[in-house]
Amino acid sequence: MMLSMQRCCLLALSPLALAALEPAARAHPDLTGLFGAVTVAWNAEEQRAAAQAPELRGRWLTVRATAYSPHDAVDGSYHASKGERWRWITADGRTDVRTIPYGIAVPRLAGSRPAWPYGTRVLIPAGQGYLDRSLPEDRIFTVDDSGGAIRGKTERSGVLHIDLRFRSEASARDFAGERGWREIRVMVLE
Question: Which of 3, 43, 88, 98 lies in the 20 to 30 Å Cα band around 28?
């Protein structure tokens, strides 16, 4: 009974946990074959999942990222000036920042066009300070806002600026740091 219970438990364990149980497999030789079979099956499943994952295509850019929150003093007063109906809606006319607190604002060009079309998806890899603890599949953000101030920063510096939206003012300030911006790499997806 104990041996069959061990086999059932081994089938549910990850390779790391199985490696920790390797001494038990040496003590019970019939577990060695099971250990190898489970490891092979696990590796095959990982390879199958990786093959099915869509390959991201796009172009990598280095940008200067500033940060904002619709709740901070500057942006909060701007949002309040839009009236109650539009107060929490971004420039794309659809995104409510109360339900989608994270997003990207790009420079507004002549004729009120955004530098990248609304809906453009942008991959921001972990390790750059923007929601680093999120899952890899949650690292794609959408352009849903634009602003004239971002355009001015881009024109003055000659480097494309984007403005990342945060849920809170404290998080936005932490990201921006003392300089008020951070240089990051992003992939604009096709």
Answer: 43
CB count in 10 Å sphere of residue 119 = 12
Q: What was the pLDDT predicted at 18?
A: 45
Half-sphere exposure of 27 (CA within 13 A, CB side): 6
- Looking up tokens 């951070």 gives 182
Give CA–CA dist 112/184, Å, rounded: 25
pLDDT under 50: residue ranges of the chain: 1-18, 31, 50
DSSP secondary structure letter of residue 143: E
Handedness of CA 180, 119, 116, 125 (dihedral sign): positive
Q: What is the CATH number of domain 58-189?
A: 2.40.40.10
Confirm if 38 and 10 have CB atoms less than 8 A apart: yes
* Tokens at 33, concatenated: 């074959």
pLDDT at 11: 44
The SS3 assignment for 79 reads helix
Write out the H or E segment, with its range, that includes residue 164.
strand 161-165
Instruction: Give the 3-state secondary structure of residue 121.
Output: strand
What are the residue boundaries of the structural domains of the chain, listed by start?
2-52, 58-189
Helices 29-52 and 2-11 cross at an angle (nearest 10°) of 20
Q: What pLDDT, on a 0 to 100 scale, did the predictor assign at position 14?
A: 46
> Which residues fall within 8 angstroms of residue 4, CB to CB, at 6 or more apart?
none
- As a whole number of angstroms, the distance between CA 186 and CA 124 comes to 5
